[in-house]
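Good morning,

Attaching, inline, the backbone tokens for the sequence recovery test we're adding to the shared suite. The designed sequence is right after.
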């Protein structure tokens, strides 16, 4: 079972999310929080696989809570679920280590897909968030940033660079394995090594780094 923490300052929103996730056979909402401070305290005190965080909340906002969770409970995968899909919010969340970003007007099936992806160590972006990331890459890919990215990738082996290239294309572990004739478990091991070497919190950060360095382009 995927153990989920739902964080939102509106009780009706929390109740709706609980109802959606509880309808899945592989998910269990183990706790609710009304602000980021509560979410951090809960994640520290009990086992949580995936934490859903809104952005604008009292006491502690979602992005601050995300940063705190990455420091104090790095095993918890964090999904931002919000009404506010501005480009700045998307990029800040991904830069801080979020496993995904989606909007509250997403379909219930999309919410469940995002939770499953996060629990599996993969990333999930809503279409709107993906557009912001693509726009950022198109407008912000300076020569200096590309050179910094290439220097960071120098520590990778040839095979690790192959796997990172596929991450940059957005492939899952299973799809990447089929492409380069590896088992899904082996790809997962490579991804863990890549994240550790590059000091990235998640696949999205590694994929953006790959794109900055020009892998696969």
């Amino acid at each position: 079972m995927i153990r989920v923490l739902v964080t939102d300052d509106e009780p009706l929103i929390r109740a709706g999310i609980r109802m959606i996730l509880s309808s899945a056979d592989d998910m269990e909402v183990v706790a609710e929080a009304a602000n980021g401070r509560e979410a951090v305290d809960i994640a520290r005190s009990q086992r949580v696989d995936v934490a859903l965080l809104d952005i604008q909340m009292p006491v502690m906002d979602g992005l601050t809570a995300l940063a705190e969770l990455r420091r104090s409970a790095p095993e918890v995968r964090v999904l931002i679920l919000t009404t506010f899909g501005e480009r700045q919010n998307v990029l800040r969340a991904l830069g801080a280590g979020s496993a995904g970003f989606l909007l509250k007007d997403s379909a219930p099936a999309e919410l469940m897909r995002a939770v499953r992806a996060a629990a599996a160590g993969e990333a999930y972006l809503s279409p709107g968030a993906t557009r912001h990331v693509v726009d950022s890459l198109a407008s912000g890919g300076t020569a200096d940033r590309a050179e910094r990215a290439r220097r960071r990738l120098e520590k990778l082996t040839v095979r690790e660079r192959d796997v990172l290239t596929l991450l940059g294309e957005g492939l899952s572990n299973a799809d990447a394995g089929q492409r380069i004739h590896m088992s899904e478990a082996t790809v997962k091991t490579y991804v863990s090594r890549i994240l550790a070497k590059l000091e990235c919190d998640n696949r999205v950060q590694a994929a953006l780094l790959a794109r900055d360095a020009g892998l696969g382009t």
